[in-house]
Design a protein that fits this description.
By secondary structure, this protein is of the alpha/beta class. It has 2 domains: 81 residues, Methyltransferase, Methionine Synthase (B12-binding Domains), Chain A, domain 1 (Orthogonal Bundle), CATH 1.10.1240.10; 129 residues, Rossmann fold (3-Layer(aba) Sandwich). The chain has a 5-stranded parallel sheet with strand order 2-1-3-4-5, sandwiched between helices. Strand 4, helix 9 and strand 5 form a beta-alpha-beta unit. The protein binds cobalamin (B12). Cobalamin binds next to helix 3, helix 4, helix 6, strand 3 and strand 4.
Length: 226
């Protein structure tokens, strides 16, 4: 019988080796043993980082990145994961327009953030990936959200994020929403350059910020837009 730490390391290794069957089997087993789904995601993420490094060092190819994405999505679709992200609140505490910015088609992190936000009582309008700034403006005008969430995983998405915020400002919508940008590469400086209200390197951090905004809106929505 393997210890927990050994199993965790094994799971990371299976992800690194893109062994779909073993990842799903072990992930299911760990969830059945009571592992926190968020902790499981951290482990899968660690495996993804290793896949990313192997891609950088040219040992892996684009097909391997695709496989890694497929594996992650299957983990997210496991029954216990879906149950964890199921909406637990009947009262809506805010509305969010979310999307991965133009030029970027990564959506796993965005989807995790969406799942966590919905589980915490936010209504999320997900615009998908590679979203042009004009669509963000159109949907913000239409849905009047409290928060706009911009996801960008590629480091060059900083410009696209900045352009979305400038487009919102030009449309007179910037001061009607809070904007949070999310991605591993973001920093305090990048956030200031983009002109966002906050940034998060991981989804839970982002949800925490949005919850704080919602709480300070004292029930009237994050910006009183409801
Ligand atoms: C899977 C993957 C892909 C899949 C994506 C599948 C999918 N459906 O998303 C595919 C095959 C499509 C892909 C394509 C490419 N990829 Co890719 N990919 C990856 C990989 C292995 C994992 C990404 C991932 O899903 N991670 C897991 C999630 C959970 O993490 P995350 O996305 O960072 O999200 C977290 C936070 O960022 C945050 N977050 C994310 N969004 C938001 C939003 C908000 C509002 C908030 C608050 C928080 C938040 O919360 C999330 C969870 O905590 C990474 C390597 C890595 N280490 O990440 C490379 C990586 C991101 N890819 C990379 C590259 C280069 C590419 C390509 C350019 C390759 C190519 N030559 O075509 C293309 C780009 C295509 C495009 N235009 O977007 C590079 C990026 C390098 C860079 N400096 O920008 C990486 C880092 C690999 C590497 N080390 O070289 N990729």
């Amino acid at each position: 019988m393997k210890g927990l730490r050994q199993k965790e390391e094994l799971l990371i290794k299976h992800v690194e080796q893109l062994d779909e069957e073993k990842v799903l089997q072990l992930a299911g087993e760990l969830l059945d043993q009571g592992m926190d789904p968020l902790h499981l995601l951290e482990l899968i993420n660690e495996g993804m980082n290793r896949v990313g490094k192997l891609y950088e060092s040219k040992e892996y190819y684009i097909a391997d990145l695709i496989m890694a994405g497929i594996i992650f999505k299957q983990v997210l679709a496991l029954e216990k994961m879906v149950a964890h992200f199921k909406v637990r609140h009947s009262k809506r505490i805010g509305r969010v327009v979310l999307g991965t910015v133009s030029g970027d088609i990564h959506d796993i992190g965005k989807d995790i953030f969406r799942g966590m936000m919905e589980a915490n009582g936010f209504e999320v309008i997900d615009l998908g990936v590679d979203v042009p700034k004009e669509l963000f403006v159109k949907k913000v005008a239409e849905y009047k959200p409290d928060i706009v969430g911009l996801s960008g995983i590629l480091t060059n998405t900083i410009e696209a994020m900045k352009e979305v915020i400038e487009a919102l400002a030009e449309a007179g919508l910037r001061d009607k929403v809070k904007v949070i940008v999310g991605g591993n590469h973001l920093t305090e400086e990048a956030c200031a350059y983009i002109g966002a209200d906050s940034f998060a390197k991981d989804a839970s951090e982002g949800v925490k910020t949005c919850m704080e905004w919602a709480e300070s809106g004292s029930g009237e929505g994050v910006r009183g837009n409801d």
